[in-house]
Amino acid sequence: MLTKAPRGTNDIFYPKSNLWQYLETKMRSVCSRFGYSEIMTPTFEHTELFLRGVGDTTDVVEKQMYTFTDKGDRSITLRPEGTASVARAFIERNMYANPLPVKQFYIIPCFRYEKPQAGRLREFHQFGVEVFGSQNPTIDAEIISLVHMLLSEIGLKSVTLNINSIGCPTCRKAYNEKLIAYFKEHYDTLCDTCKSRLERNPLRILDCKSPICGELAKDAPKLIDHICEECSTHFEGVKTRLDALNIPYVINPDIVRGLDYYTKTVFEFVAEDIGAQSTVCGGGRYDGLVQELGGPETPGIGFAMGIERLILTLESQGANFDVETKPDIYISSIGDAADVEAEKLVYILRGAGFYAEKDRVGRSLKAQMKYADKIGAAYTIVLGDDEVTSRSAELKNMQTGEKTGVQLDALADALKEINRGEE
Ligand code: ATP
Ligand code: MG
Predict the structure, then answer these.
(1) Which atom of ligand 1 is nearest to the CA of 258?
(2) pTM for the full model?
């Protein structure tokens, strides 16, 4: 137990942590170009928030939450997703008084008690955006285009964008009746969870993971064939813009999304080659959520991308990222005086913006050079008593073997000069 992390969790460390940093940098960069600011919310919330905000007939709430009673006898839940918290913050911090829409993003750990497997963890990470205060289809297209741009900049290939409209409460009411009638005919074959959902929320059955319910869902009436005129016009507005941006999509009437609060546009980016856990990103509109949580009537839309799944997909496509951190220079030394000089030099170089490294374990000169090579240092210098006295040394290019004389007191400038030359 002591040296085993809990099931479904991961340690992310070098060099993979560099890949994470790279991806997060890309996410932040794309978000800032699209005008989304970062929001940080607590890792845990009152359980009630998720019951209301995710929906108590969802798999997440019914089966997957990490809920506990704290020492003050409150029911607390580790967040299974980000939307409910951002909506809570929107209401609590009066963000609705800001110019609308309010466009925010987050990069957060989430917690769901699920059966761990590739692409399915108990602690995982999401990059997500949430927009409040626009019911315009152009914002649906904007967030989809944000994902599209991010994935293209990262170089992710073979992802399909699926879109669908699941209507509004008005059109869904009539549709629900058709759906209930359809599933009633097959009542005995439904799984127990779906039997209990049938009257309360038949739409959830379409998202059930059990193979039998999945088979039944295939032939069920499709919501997209029953949406009202307003929802249909909205959907057309989204499609027109995706077409204008040359973003390919497939209309997939089977996507309904796992959370209760979705309305109108829903979408998923699905990777073609990572097996069962292939949805890299899912999102949609949730026009009823803010009001459901006690805030003013405010439309909303967002998506969340699973970072672990994004990485799995990248890896399965053999994406090659140069994510190792290699020193610009390694300063080897022989003897005490030279070691002290090396200490000073690496400190100065680090201050000047270089990744400089020196011996930390008492290696021989030969072993130091071997180590410098192993960690991929671009340049090395060797300091002995002579170099310390003359304040000069030879700078060796580790790739070409070429050596040039440098003044120790102008080492940072010399490296800068070299970098300029290489650009
Ligand atoms: P799935 O159908 O795969 O269970 P979901 O509908 O539960 O997904 P969302 O709630 O929409 O997923 O979460 C958004 C994204 O977060 C998913 O598309 C996926 O990439 C990622 N994700 C969800 N659950 C997990 C998990 N347990 N482990 C890793 N990533 C996850
Ligand atoms: Mg799920």
Answers:
(1) 6
(2) 0.92
